[in-house]
Batch of 2 targets.
Target 1
Amino acid sequence: MSDRRRRRLRVRGVVQGVGFRPFVYTTATELALAGEVGNDEAGVLVEIEGAAAALDEFADRLRRPPPAATVDSVECTDMAVRDISGFRIVGSTPAGGGRTPVPPDIALCAACALELRDPGNRRYRHPFINCTDCGPRFTITASLPYDRERTSMADFGLCGSCVREYSDPADRRFHAQAICCPGCGPVLACSEPGTGDPLSRARALLRAGGILAVKGIGGYHLACDAADPAAVAELRRRKRRGDKPFAVMVPDLAAAEHIARVDASAAALLTGPARPIVLLPRRDSSGGARAAPDFVPADSVAPGSPDLGVLLPYTAVHLLLFGLPGDPPGPRVLVMTSGNRGGEPICYDDEDASTRLTGLADARLSHDRRILVPCDDSVLRVVDEVELPVRRSRGYAPVPMALPMPVPPTLAVGGDVKNTCAFADGRTAWLSQHIGDMDDLATLHAFDLAERHLERLTRVSPDRLVADAHPRYRSAGWARRHAGEREVRTVQHHHAHIAAVMGEHGLDAAERVLGFAFDGTGWGPDGAIWGGEVLAAGYPGYRRLAHLKYVPLPGGDVAVRRPYRMALSHLWAAGFGWPEHLAPVRACPPDERGVLEHQLRTGLGCVATSSMGRLFDAVASLADVRHVVDYEAQAAIELEGSARGASLGTVGYRFPVERGTDPAVIDPAPVIAAVAEDTARAVDAGVIGARFHAAVARLVVELALDYADIARTVILSGGVFQNALLLSTTRTLLRDQGFTVLCPQRLPPNDGGLALGQVLAAGAG
Ligand code: ZN
Ligand code: ZN
Ligand code: FE
């Protein structure tokens, strides 16, 4: 054949352990091409020959891989034709020049879910069913390359049938490293006494209102029937959890649509391979819910929250917990919350579980496959059909991110809240799973574990460490203790927030942006607590253009837990009194008011802050929405909830900007005054909330227009922009003015995204 050609294709991306070689095999066979495919350390290498048109088609199809794979690049090189026939999959060959990462944990695929339900299949009801397209990866792998012997599946020898499937290139479990079956795989056990198999005992316990610890992919969950208010109340009591919403798991997308509003983007996320928790606007119990009471979570699942965190089953164990046809009815909607007491890291180790979960759960549904590293569920929301991550963890870690410029081998340790760390080298960064708040020994231990695990999986030997500039951050302390001879660089908190978003959007090294970093807390070099920051920023540095006027933060953590204190502080800073008719004044006990007044007058125990998060708290308290919070950002979340759908009315609030100074100062006092006036006139809290959100959005646009000669690209980040209403309004107004607006899409706007910004800011400096 005259048009016969031979090509070598180098495929990079997440292409190992995700069914990529079988996909190549099938594609080549369909196109009648000859050659071979193999894994090496740089990715997947294909040598292939046949008709030129078929080769082009083949290269095209490689760019549309199986769901769990991501192809970053396909490089083609022409070779001399060898006139071979047949196509084969060859074993892994080591080669230099790159690192192929371990894939993330992948949710149960549709093909496996069908087999699970098929009484004729040999894996009918097998709780550990998986294939090349799905199953645990990251959490069961100790080191590279990703092969069974380096995973916790090495504890289980393969039976003859599994060996045959594993060795058959035409089988969908060809080289599936975690392959197993009821004859040779892990075994499920339930500590609940009774007759029947472990799953039916677990279902019965849940139906009876009990609390079950369930060993999943990245750790233990605590589960109970979400439709049973008594069970939910008992779970809150045992976990010592106040109002913080629980996520719920429902058996399928239809069930999710019964309890929440699911648009197409949210549906794709809910059913996708990462299978995160998706925050969805709930259908309220007053007529919105379209299902029988059994299917509807009790109000106490997410009290006061406008959204409901929903996730679908991502392992066979979860599906079986809901029951298959023929089973006695199981629960229809489950609370699924991480197995721990409030604030502790998720429990993942069986021995640890036997002590820590005793007293929390009535029984444990467990198995004998070890989890090597804990990994919480990821959390995302969708704003205007665009993803907004809140927590990037299971299903995403350790997917590498391409960097816009090369960096030396680096470990960035992130911040102290919602900590994640990142390894980077050259043009690639790997972000860890969510580790947690670095305020106790258990979390520091979890940090050690996650950091070492990621170091083994990336093989980066950092010669530089990067930390937040906060002198008392525990993460920064960790970096200094572990640096040895290596350099430790620091990056200012809000600069890191902006650099992270620049990085995920691939802005190049010379780019400059207007960065709006609005959050609760970040250390500023002047010793104040920053958080309402307008920066002219690039990777190497930033200039503070403007910030919210400093007000005293009285009593640090106490002020965060009691928004009424922030309201009183803002009223005081604005020169207003504390009239009794104002809600925060009434919420503050008279003794405390006296102490607070003294503190504010003398500055005792006060730190100056420009925090936008605290301004949201103050307004939430002034509007009588929330005076004391039980979890982070509760006041802002409830203010947003009340504002959604409320009309702005005719009165707008406006923030004046004092431009006589450098940086310019944004004065919140007139907004505080207007809110106080509105409450005095009994304006609805939702209307006040809507006016306040609109005012913040307008402020951003006004400032962006002022500084448009510096840059026309605007970045919105910081935890405050997890607020869907604020993000959506601000983004729309900015785009109307012709700005390019970049928002966090792959990383959270909160401190969970800092590590990437640290890598880039330090890399450029
Ligand atoms: Zn599968
Ligand atoms: Zn087997
Ligand atoms: Fe922050």
Target 2
Amino acid sequence: MIISSSHVVAMTGAGISVESGIPAFRGREGIWTRHGTPAADGYSQFLEDPEAFWARQHLGRAEPWIAELRNALDAATPNPGHIALAELERAGALRSIVTQNIDGLHQDAGSRSVVEIHGSRYKLRCVDCGIRTPREELFMAQAPPPCESCGGRVKFDSVLFGEPIPPEALEASMAAANQADCVLVIGTSATVRPAGGLPRIAQSNGAKLIEVNTSETALSKSCDIVLRGKAAEVLPQLAGGVSLGRATSWQ
Ligand code: NAD
Ligand code: ZN
């Protein structure tokens, strides 16, 4: 299916980074399953008092699940699943990745065309003018100054509960969903909107769906192919199969 498609897009969620040591939020071992689901008003807390918000982030008063996630993110490196997607892109078999992850592991693995629909932990973003800047090491430990362009409120780029998806990221993800004729849906429960709705948008435009997930999801029954297993094991096999299949079909 991948070989016979002309515009393959991968849509990835927390599951692809589990083998890199970063737990997902939901599911049996999920961070929220163990710590409880956090308050759903993170973004309004930031808007109400950005200084107090940053102080909570930096004075060790962040909630325990955030501390656990942060430690895991600091230690993580790409796993064979991330690497397989980068190989597929280099081989011309994958056009782009739309990821819900903020961990930067696709880029670390060598993927070039990556849309981060929920932002990146390595960036800051002004919520007033939308400009994104690299998050220097310094601002991991202290609050950043107001926006250099507009004087506005600067927040980390990762999207909080209740926060709108930055318009450019949303546009780029919609474009990928509209152009795709085959979507690999990897390690996502596809329940977080709007990101979780993208595979169905692609499908309604005629794209085939291939799911890679350890568990059944709300999307499984509508997928053309379901590969039940760990992304770090399934994706290298898939990339190997695509490479072999292409070599054979060119002979
Ligand atoms: P989710 O937590 O809702 O779902 C994770 C999915 O991954 C589940 O369907 C689970 O069955 C599957 N999964 C677990 N282990 C897997 C594995 N080894 N291989 C393949 N699949 C596996 O995650 P979500 O749907 O991505 O949504 C939660 C939001 O939180 C997203 O925005 C997500 O990106 C973000 N988040 C990001 C990170 C990160 O940056 N690494 C980590 C946790 C959560
Ligand atoms: Zn600004």
